[in-house]
Amino acid sequence: MCKELCFKLDIPLTILRLGLMYGEGMKYGWTDVISSIKKGQMKIIGDGKPLIQLSYVHDIIRGIYYSMGNQSAFGETINLCGGDVCSISEVFNKMADILKVAHPGKVPYKPLYLLSLGLIHFPKFLKSKRIKLITPHRIRFFKENHVYGIAKARQVINFFPDHDLNSGLRRMISNC
Question: Which of 1, 56, 73, 83 is the most buried (most CB within 10 A)?
């Protein structure tokens, strides 16, 4: 609808789809993940094989900048993501390696997913901080691939991520 309206009103529009971001200064989620890995409390849900393509925050900001006012991007929908694709297990294991702690353990997917469905019906005030994290959406994250092609970003706005996963994770962890 937005694309249609902007086209009718001759308003330049570029839709940017941003990948799951990480990097220094990211307060939401990552500090808790790092703390959980340090304490040996982090668990990978399921087999950890689904693929993920994390997006370093500075790369995303640069991609947004490249798209602003870029006439070749008008009317386009562009994915902005990092260049590395790896399994969810690999991401958390790399983080553990950087922190010099044991790799996270795994818990079976189905029982935890069923538990998350049941927990929907419990009042929030009865749930601890950790129990509040067990939601169907968060549990499904570990079962699905999170990979997005960036060929159009490369072609249309000349976007090439600068940070590989290893260097980005090191920078994020050292600044948390």
Answer: 56
Contacts of 99 (CB under 8 A, 6+ apart): 34, 37, 38, 173
* pLDDT, tens only, 53-87: 999 999 999 999 999 989 999 889 999 999 999 99
Q: Which two tokens mark 55?
A: 């997006």
8 A C-beta contact, residue 103 and residue 126: no
- Its pTM stands at 0.85
Quick check: is 170 in a domain? Answer: yes
Domain that holds residue 58: 2-108+145-174
Which range, of 42-46, 105-109, 132-136, averages the lowest pLDDT?
A: 132-136
- CA 170 to CA 78: how far, in whole Å? 27
Residue 149 lies in a domain: yes
Assign residue 101 the CATH number of its domain: 3.40.50.720
Decide which of 133 and 154 is more confident: 154
Q: Is residue 138 part of a domain?
A: no
129: in domain? no
- Specify the amino acid at residue 98: I
- The SS3 of residue 35 is helix
Q: How confident is the model at residue 13 (pLDDT cuts 50, 70, 90)?
A: confident
